[in-house]
């Protein structure tokens, strides 16, 4: 069976850094909670932006103006795109001279109510980012010690 290449997400590193930052903040507030409880709170905290590319969001919102999302769409993705669509339509009503693309770009790049990630996905991303930071710090330390 031929494997298809997956698209790379251009904001992957930014999203992972923000997830780890929010995770560390939440970890400071919880003393006896399990890691998954903390991650559950993290995914429901506000995010600095919607973690989807502007082009994809524009294609989906434009499509949503003509027909609803397919039923096979993941519930969190559906919720995110419906929120982007709702906000874009509201903004378009306030600025009728703006294009739909401009409204979507504006909405996507502003604060989102949550991360729209499953707990398991967020946990995996946080672990990957923690490991990446750990390796990066070890390399810095080695360079410093060898200098």
Describe the structure.
This protein has about 150 residues and is mostly helical. It contains 6 helices and no strands. It has helices at about 10-30, 35-45, 55-65, 75-95, 100-110, 120-145. Helix 2 (about 35-45) crosses helix 6 (about 120-145). The longest helix is centred in the C-terminal third of the chain and has 28 residues, at about 120-145. It is elongated. The chain starts with 11 loop residues before the first helix and ends with a helix.
How large a portion of the residues is in β-strands, by DSSP E? under 5%
Mean pLDDT: 91
Residue windows where pLDDT falls under 50 for at least 5 positions: none
Structural class call reads mainly alpha
Q: What helical percentage do the residues reach?
A: 55-70%
The biggest sheet amounts to: none
* Helical stretch tally: 6
List how many beta strands DSSP finds: 0
3D shape? elongated
User: Separation of termini?
Assistant: 50 Å
The sequence of SSEs as H and E is HHHHHH
Radius of gyration: 19 Å
Report the oligomer: single chain
In short:
The chain has helices at 12-29, 35-43, 54-66, 75-94, 100-108, 119-146.
What descriptors fit this protein?
single chain; 147 residues; mainly alpha; 6 helices; elongated
């Amino acid at each position: 069976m031929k494997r298809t290449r997956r698209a790379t997400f251009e904001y992957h590193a930014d999203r992972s850094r923000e997830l780890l930052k929010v995770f560390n903040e939440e970890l400071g507030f919880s003393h006896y909670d399990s890691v998954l409880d903390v991650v559950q709170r993290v995914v429901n905290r506000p995010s600095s932006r919607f973690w989807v590319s502007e082009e994809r969001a524009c294609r989906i919102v434009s499509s949503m103006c003509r027909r609803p999302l397919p039923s096979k769409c993941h519930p969190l993705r559906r919720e995110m795109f419906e929120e982007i669509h709702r906000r874009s339509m509201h903004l378009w009503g306030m600025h009728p001279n703006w294009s739909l693309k401009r409204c979507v770009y504006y909405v996507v790049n502003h604060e989102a109510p949550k991360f729209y990630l499953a707990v398991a996905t967020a946990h995996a991303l946080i672990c990957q980012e923690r490991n990446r930071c750990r390796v990066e710090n070890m390399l810095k330390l080695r360079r410093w010690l060898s200098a």
